[in-house]
Amino acid sequence: MRTAFIETLERLAEADSRIVLMTGDLGFGVLDRYRERFPDQFYNVGVAEQNMAGVAAGLAMAGHIVFTYSIANFPILRCLEQVRNDICYHEADVKIVSVGGGMAYGSLGPSHYATEDLAICRALPGLTVVAPGDPVEVEKLVPQIVSKPGPAYLRLGRAGELRIHAQDAQVELGRLTPVREGADVLLLATGGMLAEVVRSADELLLEGISAAVI
């Protein structure tokens, strides 16, 4: 998902100089090409997520569309007060990107768990919460959150997520995205669990149970 994100963001940044990407001193390798192509639209603020949120809010209020980028819980939980006060209460055009939702970085310990972020973000005022299920959803949803003014939270998987949807799938912000039809049971998936849910539907079919997936 993160590769699909940065490739999509590059295309958008090329067409719109207002787009700015900020990182908390990580993402090297993934972000290098963007940094090289758009040096005036990239900032590394160091390991200082609270500061990153505040600077992002300032840039947004100066007319930019700002993406902040960090792993797991750091761009939300570490700087929750700044996200609420500086970004959400000011309706700033800041898109917060979290990589490795859930326990994708679990081997690094509880400091890197992102297990409460969806619940917390849903409670923040005016924050659009976006949890794509595969790279196709990322490619289709990133342009939509850029065109939607105001704050957003984009929760991505860590790496290697399977492409579940066909490239021409209809993916619309705020609407359910059908994956397959079924007659017996309905399975609902959010975020990186989509591939596991599709696998579960395949296993149910072997037992004669037809599962729809959304």
Write a concise synopsis of the structure shown:
Helices cover 35% and strands 16% of the residues.
Order of helices and strands: HEHEHEHEHEHEEHE
- N-C termini distance: 19 Å
Rg of Cα set: 17 Å
**Which residue ranges are poorly predicted, with pLDDT under 50 across at least 5 consecutive positions?**
none
Order of strands, main sheet, comes to 2-1-3-4-6-5
Largest sheet, if any? 6 strands, parallel
Q: Could you tell me the mean pLDDT?
A: 95
| Residues in helix, % | 25-40%
Q: Give the beta-strand count.
A: 8
Beta-strand percent range = 15-25%
* Shape descriptor: globular
Structural class: alpha/beta
For the structure shown, list the relevant keywords:
6-stranded parallel sheet, 214 residues, globular, alpha/beta
Structure write-up:
The chain is built from seven helices and eight strands. The protein is α/β, with parallel strands linked by helices and 214 residues long. The strands form two sheets. A six-stranded parallel beta sheet has the order 2-1-3-4-6-5. It has a two-stranded parallel ribbon with strand order 7-8. Helix 7 (194-206) links the parallel strand 7 (185-187) and strand 8. The mean pLDDT is 95.
